[in-house]
C-alpha cells in the first residue's frame, strides 16, 4: 500500500497545482491523461509475441497490470532492469505505455545498437528534447549528411594536434582557480570542480573572448539552459512552463552573446585556437560554411556534452583517492615521475604518461556512469540470438548495469583501477565491454578531451594540496537525470607550501 499511497499523494498534489494554474503541473496532468489513454488502447491491441512467425525478445513485467511496469521503473529503474537481466538474460523487453523498451545488456548485445548503421538504428526522435537547447537542424535534429558534417567539424577540433594546444589552457585555468583557495579549509568538491570544468571548457572550446570578458554571463545562461532540461522536457519539450520559457530566452541570449564574438573575428581577422574557430572555418564538400545559428548550437552542444559528465567523474575520482591512501600515494608518485620526464612541465606528454590516473578515471566511469542509460530507436528490424527486434523499439543499454556484472568484472563492487592493467585488462576480454564513452559507431568524440581535462585538473590539485575526506563516502543519486554523488561532497584541503598571508 505504501507505493500506491505515494502515487496517490503525488497525483492529488499535482492535480491541485494544476487547478491553481501551475503550467508545469498542467503539463504533467496532460501527459498522465494521454499516457493512460494510450495504455488502455494498448491493453486491447497488444502486439502478439511471434507475430508472423518471428520470435520477439521475452517480456519482463512487474506489479499491477497496465501500470506496474511504469511504477517500478519510475521508482528504481536500475533495480528493475537488473531483476529483468537476472530473470531473462541479456535481451528482453519491457512494455512501457505506448512504447517497447528493449534492453541490451552484454557486450554482444551492445553490437545490435552500437554497430548498426544510423539508417537502421538512430537517435533523432529520442533526443528531440535537445532541439530547443541546441537549435533546429543541430546535431541529432539534422539529417544524416548534415549530422556527419557537424560531427566531422567536431572531430577536427578534437584531434591530437588541437588537444596538445588545449592542455596549457587547462593547466593555466586550474592553477589560477586553485590559487584562490586559502592555505587550508573545506570546500564542496563537486561545486568547485563543476565551475572549473566550465572554465576550462569555455577557454578551449568557446575561446578567450568568452572566457575572459563574458564568462559570468555565459555561465548563467548555460545554467538556465541546463535547468530547462527536466524530466518533463523528455515528453513535452515545448510545453510553456516557466523553466522552458527561461530556457528559450537563454538560448536567444546566448546566440546574441556568441554572435558578437563571431562577428568581431570576421571583421578583424582574428584567428583563435579554439573549437569556435574550427566551426567558423569548416566547409562542406560544396564549399558552403555553417551559418552562425548552427555554430552557436554546436558550441552549446559541445559544452553540454562534457560539463556534467566531467564534473561528476572528476568528483568521484577525488572522493575515492582521498579515502585510499595507498592508491593516492601511487597516483602522486606517478605524477612526480611524469613531471620529471618533462623537466617539471605539466604538458600533454606528461599527462599521457599518467596511466594509473587514467585507469582510476575508467574505474570511476565503470562504477558510477553519469548516464545510466544509452538509448537508440530501431528504424529497420534488427535480430539478436534468433530474436527479432521490431522497428519502433527503443533500445536501452545500461553502463550502470553492465558495469557491475560479475560475468564481466571480477568483484564488480570493489573499486579496483588495476583491473584495466596488464595482465587482467578486463575491459578487453570482449568488444564493447567498457561503456564509459559509448562505443562502436557511437563512441564519444570528446573522450580524449575529457581524459586530458580531468587529469590536468587533478594533477594541479594533487601537486599543490593535501586532501582529506569529511564525512562518509557518498552514494550515487539515481533520482537525477545525470547521476552524480548524493549530498554534499565536502573535503578538507591544506596547501603543501603555505603562502604568506
UniProtKB/TrEMBL annotation:
Gene3D superfamilies: Cytochrome P450. Heme binds at residue 444. The keyword Heme applies. The chain crosses the membrane at residues 25-44. Its cofactor is heme. Keywords: Heme, Iron, Membrane, Metal-binding, Monooxygenase, Oxidoreductase, Transmembrane, Transmembrane helix. CDD domains: CYP51-like (cd11042). GO terms for molecular function: heme binding; iron ion binding; monooxygenase activity; oxidoreductase activity, acting on paired donors, with incorporation or reduction of molecular oxygen. It holds the Pfam family p450. It comes from the Eukaryota. Belongs to the cytochrome P450 family. This is Uncharacterized protein. It comes from Rhodosorus marinus. The lineage of its organism: Eukaryota, Rhodophyta, Stylonematophyceae, Stylonematales, Stylonemataceae.
Amino acid at each position: 500500500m505504501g507505493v500506491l499511497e505515494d502515487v496517490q499523494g503525488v497525483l492529488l498534489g499535482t492535480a491541485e497545482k494544476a487547478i491553481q494554474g501551475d503550467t508545469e503541473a498542467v503539463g504533467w496532468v496532460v501527459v498522465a491523461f494521454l499516457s493512460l489513454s494510450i495504455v488502455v488502447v494498448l491493453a486491447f491491441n497488444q502486439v502478439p509475441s511471434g507475430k508472423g512467425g518471428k520470435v520477439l525478445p521475452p517480456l519482463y513485467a512487474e506489479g499491477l497490470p497496465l501500470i506496474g511496469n511504469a511504477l517500478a521503473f519510475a521508482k528504481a529503474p536500475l533495480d528493475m532492469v537488473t531483476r529483468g537481466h537476472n530473470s531473462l538474460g541479456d535481451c528482453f523487453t519491457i512494455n512501457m505505455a505506448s512504447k517497447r523498451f528493449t534492453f541490451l545488456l552484454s557486450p554482444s548485445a551492445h553490437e545490435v545498437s552500437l554497430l548498426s548503421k544510423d539508417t537502421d538504428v538512430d537517435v533523432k526522435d529520442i533526443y528531440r528534447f535537445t532541439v530547443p537547447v541546441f537549435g533546429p537542424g543541430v546535431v541529432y535534429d539534422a539529417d544524416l549528411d548534415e549530422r556527419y558534417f557537424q560531427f566531422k567539424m567536431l572531430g577536427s577540433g578534437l584531434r591530437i594536434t588541437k588537444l596538445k594546444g588545449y592542455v596549457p589552457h587547462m593547466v593555466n585555468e586550474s592553477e589560477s582557480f586553485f590559487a584562490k583557495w586559502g592555505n587550508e579549509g573545506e570546500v564542496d568538491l563537486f561545486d568547485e570542480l563543476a565551475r572549473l570544468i566550465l572554465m576550462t571548457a569555455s577557454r578551449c572550446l568557446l575561446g578567450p573572448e568568452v572566457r575572459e570578458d563574458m564568462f559570468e554571463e555565459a555561465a548563467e545562461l548555460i545554467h538556465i539552459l541546463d535547468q530547462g532540461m527536466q524530466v518533463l522536457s523528455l515528453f513535452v519539450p515545448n510545453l510553456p512552463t516557466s523553466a522552458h520559457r527561461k530556457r528559450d530566452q537563454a538560448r536567444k541570449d546566448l546566440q546574441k552573446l556568441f554572435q558578437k564574438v563571431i562577428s568581431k573575428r570576421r571583421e578583424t581577422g582574428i584567428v583563435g585556437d579554439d573549437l569556435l574557430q574550427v566551426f567558423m572555418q569548416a566547409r562542406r564538400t560544396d564549399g558552403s560554411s555553417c551559418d552562425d545559428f548552427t555554430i552557436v548550437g554546436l558550441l552549446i552542444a559541445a559544452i553540454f556534452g562534457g560539463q556534467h559528465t566531467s564534473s561528476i567523474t572528476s568528483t568521484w575520482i577525488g572522493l575515492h583517492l582521498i579515502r585510499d591512501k595507498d592508491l593516492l600515494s601511487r597516483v602522486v608518485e606517478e605524477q612526480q615521475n611524469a613531471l620529471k620526464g618533462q623537466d617539471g612541465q605539466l604538458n600533454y606528454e606528461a599527462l599521457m604518461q599518467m596511466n594509473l590516473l587514467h585507469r582510476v578515471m575508467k574505474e570511476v566511469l565503470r562504477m558510477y556512469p553519469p548516464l545510466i542509460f544509452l538509448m537508440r530507436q530501431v528504424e529497420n528490424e534488427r535480430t539478436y540470438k534468433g530474436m527479432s527486434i521490431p522497428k519502433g523499439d527503443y533500445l536501452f543499454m545500461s553502463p550502470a548495469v553492465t558495469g557491475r556484472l560479475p560475468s564481466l568484472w571480477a568483484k564488480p563492487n570493489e573499486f579496483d583501477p588495476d583491473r584495466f592493467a596488464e595482465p587482467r585488462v578486463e575491459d578487453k576480454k570482449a568488444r564493447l565491454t567498457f561503456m564509459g564513452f559509448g562505443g562502436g559507431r557511437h563512441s564519444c568524440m570528446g573522450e580524449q578531451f575529457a581524459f586530458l581535462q580531468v587529469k590536468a585538473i587533478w594533477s594541479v590539485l594533487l601537486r599543490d594540496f593535501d586532501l582529506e575526506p569529511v564525512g562518509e563516502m557518498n552514494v550515487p543519486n539515481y533520482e537525477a537525470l545525470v547521476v552524480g554523488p548524493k549530498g554534499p561532497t565536502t573535503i578538507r584541503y591544506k596547501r603543501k607550501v603555505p603562502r604568506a598571508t
